[in-house]
Amino acid sequence: MAAELTTHELIARHRPTLDQALEAIRTRAYWSPHPEHPKAYGENGSLDAGAGKAAFDAVLGTRLDLGQPGTDDWVGGEVSPYGVELGVTYPHADIDVLLPAMKAGQGAWRDAGAETRAVVCLEILKRISDRTHEFAHAVMHTSGQAFMMAFQAGGPHAQDRGLEAVAYAYVEQVRTPDTAEWTKPQGKRDPLVLTKHFTPVPRGIALLIGCNTFPTWNGYPGLFASLATGNAVLVKPHPRAVLPLALTVQAAREVLAEAGFDPNLVALAAERPDEGIAKTLATRPEIRIIDYTGSTSFGDWLEANARQAQVYTEKAGVNTVIVDSTADYKGMLSNLAFSLSLYSGQMCTTPQNLLIPRDGIATDQGHKSFDEVTADLARSVDALLGDDARANALLGAIVNPDVKARLEAAAALGEVALASREVANPDFPDAVVRTPVIVKLDGAKPDAEAAYMSECFGPVSFAVAVDSAAGAVELLRRTVREKGAMTVGAYTTDEEVERAVQEVCLDEAAQLSLNLTGGVYVNQTAAFSDFHGSGGNPAANAALCDGAFVANRFRVVEVRREA
Amino acid sequence: MAAELTTHELIARHRPTLDQALEAIRTRAYWSPHPEHPKAYGENGSLDAGAGKAAFDAVLGTRLDLGQPGTDDWVGGEVSPYGVELGVTYPHADIDVLLPAMKAGQGAWRDAGAETRAVVCLEILKRISDRTHEFAHAVMHTSGQAFMMAFQAGGPHAQDRGLEAVAYAYVEQVRTPDTAEWTKPQGKRDPLVLTKHFTPVPRGIALLIGCNTFPTWNGYPGLFASLATGNAVLVKPHPRAVLPLALTVQAAREVLAEAGFDPNLVALAAERPDEGIAKTLATRPEIRIIDYTGSTSFGDWLEANARQAQVYTEKAGVNTVIVDSTADYKGMLSNLAFSLSLYSGQMCTTPQNLLIPRDGIATDQGHKSFDEVTADLARSVDALLGDDARANALLGAIVNPDVKARLEAAAALGEVALASREVANPDFPDAVVRTPVIVKLDGAKPDAEAAYMSECFGPVSFAVAVDSAAGAVELLRRTVREKGAMTVGAYTTDEEVERAVQEVCLDEAAQLSLNLTGGVYVNQTAAFSDFHGSGGNPAANAALCDGAFVANRFRVVEVRREA
């Protein structure tokens, strides 16, 4: 078919961005081509705030026809954590029709080569970027994130992670040259001479199993890594967060078709309530790669059962912050208060266990007892969230009833240092908005261990009294080893303690933030620079993004012949 | 401890070689620092033929004490396929003592960094290279390879594959810088500034499960990839091929100690007859990486059961050569005859199924019927192996009774185009030396399929009559998809057929050699240039060597703090 977008055009448009991304993953300095500020949108084809909102409103209550083959029904039923029924329906696929259709265009996609695939992916990301305002509403009304967070984390930050994956995928594929001349001397006889051709080939169809809380941010790395390495990608969104990924699939299909490729290289697999198609899809022989973010139990199931596929999982963990000592008590408290509050603690990177010596800590404001530290932290959270408007803007809404139930049960686990309170949302009266709870536990008591050694996903954290800094370090080691962690934080002015914490993190492969007191938080990572997870502890078997995340999504086939 | 070998010295000695290896894996042009000719050894500290033989003889009948902790017994019992009892005993380990001892030195090995680890590995390879003549005898008398093959494949070629793995491991680890300054603009406010440190960390202890036929060639990639990425490596050799890997462990321990590292970073796990310790070791929590070459059943078992580890397997496959047409009939026949004969077909890369149209093929010597092709090939093998001295030098010995039994049973599977014959070995009268058998099968007959669709490891190949080139291509596709293949060969002068074969190899991820008629054979691959296996079909889940082979043997831990 005649392409509206030629490869030449796409390379001219996107190669400079790709090159900058390649440079960024080498230096890991700050870089992003995707503006974080809502007002940066509205020119050069991007939707401004009003147009984005209008686009979102226009899709509500409609059938989102993606033009996919094998559609046998229309399904939907998302209800926003803010109380709005989205009313959008999506294609439900007969997978025996859809999967073969997805394979049909793979040969041409493979033959296009790594650079063309990369720039097609960058064009998809550009279309998504242009619709950032629209996506922000879609992410907000599926994840429950407050608008600004949905805008940034669901928009530019997610797009950054997608672009980062494309850059890693590209560089990995071009490590091996397309051709080589191989001449082996044979003493006095003629040398042996071979011509060799090397082609990166896809594994097959990749399956992306999306999550409820960060459908785009957690979805884009796998989606773009698989697509850029030549695989078709089937997107199975979380039933409560279909729209952001459906719009993504829409943009991808649009660009693929315009660039002369088969749009079925990217398709959506929405499901009926309680259909549970992830298990069926994950074990289909056509599915050779799976990316998953969600519960440990299903992640473990995938790793054990989807044996025909490469499986990349991000599961649960127990994130720890050691509070040993600080030279900036106020900065520490406000930094921690923000980390605990952002998106009501519904991030896989939110700290859960704050390990604090029961004898208290040294600070620039003198010695602070365990109770003083917890009380001061509670006050910091209160101060941060005292204003309802600001509280709503930071907390967002509770994403589902399970989180609410866990929050309500948490108060019974120990002495409450900070009680959760309801916050009214004037714009969305049905939204469930809650401030975080902080519960004090005694680390020496066996019955407390059941609480702090399990992930309690949501706005719940435990101030755990430990005997000493050394005890904190040992508990950190055991927690990461047994439960995994996406993040570790530590506050200490003691070089010995700092060294011990680092040693644990190196031994147990956990990502460490030290003494953050300013505007960077332990639960945030930046694409091109920070790794999200390590892939080396039970919380996740892969990191975003590194060579290992992309290198096994394709294989290299060599064809050699005598020259 | 004071190191006899300083890092500085090792870098000066080996960095140029490392750089050349890095360049070779980028260009994939011919390169090797390890001479193939036996006469190249004897200077600069390397053993010449006589000294190598003497060193081998000196170890026979001795206890090879590696100085390992936790040795609770001495075990051995290797009998050479050439009939010689080696009489060497090796340490048997109490793994509850050995494994913790192997972990003790990991912190220092990790902290040494990627470059130091690489040059230490290169020093180990240098010591092994110096002992190539000694290793040649050890490989010969465990694998049954003829001396020259044991010398080359077990010596320089194996060392090349080890070095290649070190190069890949090094480059993978230095993709991320040691440190980064990250400065994020904040409009009119001060920028956010972080200092980030990145450290490659090992997964834990790696387990190498060695094979009988190529203990060093198949063992070195995993061993050196794991060691170079910071892991300790436990080497569990095949009970019939302990010596080459025991000598390897000896060399590694020597160099590690001299360089100031804990020698227990590399250790041997020899076993009692029928002890079957591989299963026990493979599922120990300390074991986080496994490299395995051997049967499909145990490879599948490892993949299914060693869930705590990254598992790299090379298993069985069914290698196919399509014989469609040729412009060099004589060259094709002699090339194929050599491929079928080398090491009595006991290579994972030896062709098994020769797919030949039942109506014959076009050649530069006119049309040849199916029967003519098979008869001419039989004659070529006969001519190649007619002289007993040359036959012994090419065939080596049958490695074990199972191979002999399969060979003897093969003649009953169909019409014999070339019968196997016994060859006497004047030097080793007890050696079992056999020429290959070629059996004709009708690809259209369902009862023939059971034979040609299973791996028949050893000097057995099937001339399978197919209806057409298209039929051959389809059978190739089915064979690779269902049974896997380490190699595919094809002879054709028809562009359409060539394209179709290539398409199958790209679709099913198989490595293809086209129209080889000279001194390169389908069953041989060269390090730094050819991939061994693809990792994308059932014969192996990894390729030697690529980014995917090394990228997940370590993780990167980030420590970030405000600048």
TrEMBL record, chains A, B:
Q: Where is the Aldehyde dehydrogenase domain?
A: 93-535
Q: Which Pfam families match?
A: Aldedh
Transmembrane feature ranges: none
Q: Which UniProt keywords apply?
A: NAD, Oxidoreductase
* InterPro entries linked to this entry: Ald_DH/histidinol_DH (IPR016161), Ald_DH_C (IPR016163), Ald_DH_N (IPR016162), Aldehyde_DH_dom (IPR015590), PaaN_2 (IPR011975), Proline_metab_enzyme (IPR050485)
What this protein is called in its record is Phenylacetic acid degradation protein PaaN
Which residues are the signal sequence here? none
Q: Which SUPFAM superfamilies match?
A: ALDH-like
